[in-house]
Structure prediction request, 59 residues.
Amino acid sequence: MICEVSDPSHTQPHLRRAPWKDEGGRGLFLLARLTHRWGSRYTVAGETIWTEKLLEEVL
Prediction:
């Protein structure tokens, strides 16, 4: 299963461990832990983050 999310940002996504007080910054960390693999690609309209989850993990 593949899921993609796009936005107009052109910044490079990076994994980080957010301090417990931070209200944000955990998205990519959660994706990396919960999916088989993930990545990003860029277009003139912005970036797309994609994730891949193996079907046997979903069913």
Observations:
- The chain has two helices and three strands.
- The chain has a mean pLDDT of 86.
- Helices lie at 27-34, 55-58.
